[in-house]
# Entry
Amino acid sequence: MIDQILWEGLWLLGFVVAAAMIFRHLLRQTRSGD
# Structure
């Protein structure tokens, strides 16, 4: 049961990190003006 919680936490953490990286990349693109 603890393993399942850990796995779900890892999935969520990875998803948040990936979303943050994509968001920063998009912000950088829009800031350059193109």
Q: What stands out?
A: Residues 1-34 form one domain. The chain has a mean pLDDT of 90.
